[in-house]
């Protein structure tokens, strides 16, 4: 064997492995692909409303009749239309249809630009400038392939946009494909694909219905050979069912003759379970979840995107529900047998009669009845007896919901926010104690500026470290939920370097923490080991209550005029500082 043949065999093996991966590999549609598929119905409806469209047909997979049976395509639709006046054709034409829905900002912008440049209804030829301006490069060969398989001269490329759950068709592009283009594309595919998959369509293999290892080409890998042997019986059975050889017209029937080279296509009706009958019967004979695999699609929501762990849990729940359904069907049969023995002591029921008893209880009906019975059980006294925390007959009240209800009742009975004796009130009332220490996604204690809540105040004394009329530390921050002013910076020698804000929400006994915090201020002042500036680091370190302020006599008013030249002009504050602060604020909010 020469090097050229070895290189060719390796290339064939790699190409076939890529094909096998696309056939047998696990592929999941993206959200955009699913939305595009769902939007095809809407596009077909809009297409049928066009005055130049006579009929719209849905089709499945179409197989080429040019000689390579392995070439196929699935157009989105086939239409019968009167082409616009730009075309030279005067009679109705059959066109294949390819529908695309643009959903991202970049693709929507490109589609709108094509409409602005060429209009809503466009007529062009494959690979000319208009075609390239309206059809993205990723879709051009797809249109050529459909034209080759369908052997149609014209195709229609429909572009729609979807944004904010709304869809709109914005452009129709009629594309003309020459015979030479379609022929060249066919020859290229046949050159590459015939050695790879053409052998699978051998008439002897199809009639036999199964593969042996010797039937596969020598350049195939063992894994690909095993995959083909495993899938071929099912695939050949389907192929022989859909593609029937021979012509059954009056002449051939009379002469008892058939032409094996003539194919008659009989597509199958839609089916819910696509399994080989032996495989299906084998699963039916097993107990547990494997027996009911054909029912799984009726339980799960289509298009639901969940993680592997969530999918596994849902599968387990599905297994429990389906097994319970089977038990309920079995109970029906047992009850039917008892009644039948009482009425007809000498006659045993038939299998068909017992099967009908099972068919009367479908899975969907059972799931509905199970849900209703479950809700009834949650209302029963038996459920509350085994679940003391279930005060609500429908659902257990969570700690967050209970706190919301108690806090609402507190604000109806007491003034809010607390103005006097904050420490005592938050320490003695159980609702405020839970509010102070509770944290969740809805209850997040955060520092906010006092001035944002009360425009008349810039600072207030801290609710934790202040004591009577003695000197205290001012703060410009407060808790957004408790609505009490609290120091946001640590000062003095405290354990764990916690501020008043942290101590307020983490401490069990506020009165003990209050005493320790106030003593820390006194010691810090006496030893001068810590600056006690307020939270925004202004120069003043202490403030006093109004009772400590002495009356100061008013200064006498200075009469007369003051020469403006004697008073030095104060320097102006430039706007750069304000601008810088504003821009910084905008940047923070943006983050």
Structural description of this entry:
With 591 residues, the protein is of the alpha+beta class. The protein contains 22 helices and 14 strands. Strands 1-4-5-7-8-6 form a six-stranded mixed beta sheet, with helices on both faces. Strands 2-3 form a two-stranded antiparallel ribbon. The chain has a two-stranded antiparallel sheet with strand order 9-10. Helix 5 packs across helix 6 (179-197), helix 12 packs across helix 13 and helix 16 (399-413) packs across helix 18.
Low-confidence stretches: 246-258, 287-292, 296-303, 391-396, 529-534, 536-568, 570-591
Shape label:
extended
Q: Sketch the major β-sheet.
A: 6 strands, mixed
CATH topology of the largest domain: Lambda Exonuclease, Chain A
**Quantity of strands, as a count:** 14
Structural class of the secondary elements?
A: alpha+beta
Structural features:
591 residues; alpha+beta; Lambda Exonuclease, Chain A; 4 domains; six-stranded mixed sheet; two-stranded antiparallel ribbon; 22 helices; 14 strands; extended; disordered C terminus
């Amino acid at each position: 064997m020469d090097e050229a043949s070895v290189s060719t065999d390796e290339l064939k093996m790699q190409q076939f492995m890529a094909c096998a991966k696309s056939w047998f590999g696990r592929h999941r549609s993206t959200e955009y692909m699913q939305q595009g598929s769902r939007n095809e119905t809407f596009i077909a409806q809009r297409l049928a409303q066009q005055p130049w469209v006579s009929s719209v047909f849905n089709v499945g997979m179409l197989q080429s009749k040019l000689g390579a049976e392995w070439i196929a395509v699935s157009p989105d639709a086939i239409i019968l239309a009167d082409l616009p006046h730009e075309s030279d054709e005067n009679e109705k034409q059959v066109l294949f249809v390819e529908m695309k829905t643009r959903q991202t900002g970049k693709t929507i912008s490109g589609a709108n630009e094509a409409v602005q440049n060429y209009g809503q209804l466009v007529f062009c030829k494959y690979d000319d400038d208009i075609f390239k301006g309206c059809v993205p490069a990723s879709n051009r060969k797809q249109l050529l392939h459909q034209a080759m398989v369908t052997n149609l001269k014209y195709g229609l490329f429909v572009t729609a946009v979807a944004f904010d759950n709304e869809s709109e068709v914005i452009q129709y592009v009629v594309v003309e494909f020459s015979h030479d283009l379609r022929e060249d594309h066919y020859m290229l595919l046949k050159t590459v694909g015939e050695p790879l998959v053409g052998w699978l369509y051998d008439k002897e293999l199809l009639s036999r219905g199964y593969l042996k290892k010797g039937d596969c080409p020598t350049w195939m890998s063992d894994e690909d050979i095993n995959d083909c042997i495993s899938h071929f019986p099912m695939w050949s059975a389907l192929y022989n069912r859909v593609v029937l050889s021979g012509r059954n017209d009056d002449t051939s029937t009379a002469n008892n003759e058939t032409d094996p080279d003539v194919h008659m296509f009989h597509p199958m009706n839609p089916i819910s379970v696509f399994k080989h009958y032996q495989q299906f019967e084998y699963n039916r004979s097993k107990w547990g979840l494997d027996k009911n695999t054909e029912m799984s699609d009726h339980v799960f929501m289509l298009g639901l995107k969940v993680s592997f762990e969530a999918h596994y849990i849902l599968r387990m729940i599905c297994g429990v529900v389906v097994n319970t359904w089977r038990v309920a069907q079995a109970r029906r049969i047992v009850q039917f047998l008892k009644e039948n023995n009482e009425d007809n002591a000498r006659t045993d029921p038939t299998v068909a009669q017992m099967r009908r008893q099972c068919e009367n209880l479908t899975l969907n009906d059972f799931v509905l009845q199970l849900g209703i019975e479950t809700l009834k059980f949650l209302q029963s006294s038996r459920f509350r007896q085994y679940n003391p925390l279930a005060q609500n007959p429908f659902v257990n009240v969570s700690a967050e919901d209970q706190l919301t209800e108690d806090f609402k009742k507190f604000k109806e009975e007491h003034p809010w926010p607390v103005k006097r004796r904050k420490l005592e009130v938050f320490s003695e009332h159980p609702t405020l104690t839970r509010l102070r220490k509770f944290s969740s996604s809805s209850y997040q204690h955060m520092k906010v500026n006092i001035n944002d809540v009360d425009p008349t105040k810039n600072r207030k004394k801290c609710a934790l470290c202040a004591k009577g009329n003695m000197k205290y530390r001012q703060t410009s921050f407060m808790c957004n939920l408790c609505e009490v002013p609290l120091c946001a910076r640590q000062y003095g020698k405290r354990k764990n370097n916690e501020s008043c804000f942290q101590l307020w929400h983490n401490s069990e006994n506020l009165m003990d923490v209050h005493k320790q915090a106030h003593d820390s201020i006194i010691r810090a002042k006496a030893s001068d080991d810590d600056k006690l500036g307020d939270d925004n680091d202004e120069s003043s370190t202490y403030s006093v209550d109004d009772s400590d302020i002495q009356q100061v006599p008013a200064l006498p008013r200075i009469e007369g005029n003051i020469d403006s030249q004697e008073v030095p002009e104060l320097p102006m504050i430039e706007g750069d500082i304000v601008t810088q602060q504003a821009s910084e604020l905008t940047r923070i909010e943006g983050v």
